[in-house]
Amino acid sequence: MNITKTTPWFLYVCLILLSGYKSVKGSISPSSEPTKDGKFGFKPTTLFVFGDSYADTGNTPVIISPSWRFPYGITFPGKPTGRFGDGRISTDYLAKYLGLRTPIAYKWRRFALPRQVVNKGINFAFGGAGVFETIFTVPTASMQINSFERLLRKNVYSPADLNSSVAFFSFIGNDYIKYNIFNGTSQGRPALIRRVTKQILLDVKRIKDLGVRKVFVVLSPPHNCVPLYSTSKGCNTSNPLTKLHNSLIREGLRKLNDENNEKSFLMLDFYKAFMTIFKYRGVPGVSTFSEPLKACCEGRKGGNSCGDVDIYGRRLYSVCKDPKSFFFWDNVHITDEGWRSVFSLLLPDSR
């Protein structure tokens, strides 16, 4: 698939999420324990990230990705950095919670100064990635883990590094996007979900078996509530496929945790957090979103998207005056303030 400056490609990279609603209480499962020193026995020193555009901090190529074009990054650090949003994303807020700096993107590891930066972790996440191959030629989850394993073979990380390490595994649903684009049937979706979730469980177990101490695994947020599919009045949250996807992950991680005494796998329930924010239009005492289902940055005409320009460099999009008042940055991705709100619910110390 060819990707041009005016093609809303990242809308296809939108992470298919599936729906259902419960309160956020207990959303760090199964142990519901925070992760700082004294909370589960060690202080994290290294963070490894595997995922898609919700976690990518700069791996996607500059030439094809809107994440490297204005106005992405306008809130933080004031310029595009390869993140899909106006500022910090999920990876940044998890790192903050752990007391770590955001790990460098794998693509830029050779340019890291000082070299100790690499020793604190790597982000392998790639916009458009899936558990399996998607409509883009990008590293799958298994390929990202392969890159991690190659670094281990080169002794970039010591056993001590791994013994105090945490992984973040955040693949939201580009596999389902591919299925929909190629006219997959509704009857076939449950089988696909079972295949995807089975591979997710194999992947996170592999990460643990490579020596990582704890692994955070994301549960899918509600697909129908991204601006691409929703309206300002609301979104359809009755899709049972969300419940199937998330319940299979939840049950699978419970079984993996039962196999060891450390309870190595922790869930971050994006679904509950997103739905709570939509219901209350923010997080009391943290944020307020007057229209939580509307995007801050939008294309001005059909077919245009945030960051698109014409052949003369003129903008084909509009940007809201205050990104902090919006949960969604574009038709799929979250604002800096939106992610801050999500993690304030999931991991209160990350505010």
From TrEMBL:
Q: Which residues form the signal peptide?
A: 1-26
Instruction: Kindly list the GO molecular function terms attached to this UniProt entry.
Output: hydrolase activity, acting on ester bonds
Task: Decide whether keyword Kinase is in the record.
Answer: no
Cite the InterPro entries for this sequence: GDSL, SGNH_hydro_sf
Sorted UniProt keywords: Hydrolase, Lipid degradation, Lipid metabolism, Signal
GO biological process terms, alphabetically, are: lipid catabolic process
Q: Name one Pfam family in it.
A: Lipase_GDSL
The record, for PANTHER family, names: GENOME ASSEMBLY, CHROMOSOME: A03 (PTHR46020:SF5), OSJNBB0059K02.9 PROTEIN (PTHR46020)
Report the sequence similarity comment from the record: Belongs to the 'GDSL' lipolytic enzyme family.
Q: What is the protein name given in its UniProt record? A: Uncharacterized protein
* Taxonomic source organism: Brassica carinata (Ethiopian mustard)
Its taxonomic path starts at:
Eukaryota, Viridiplantae, Streptophyta, Embryophyta, Tracheophyta
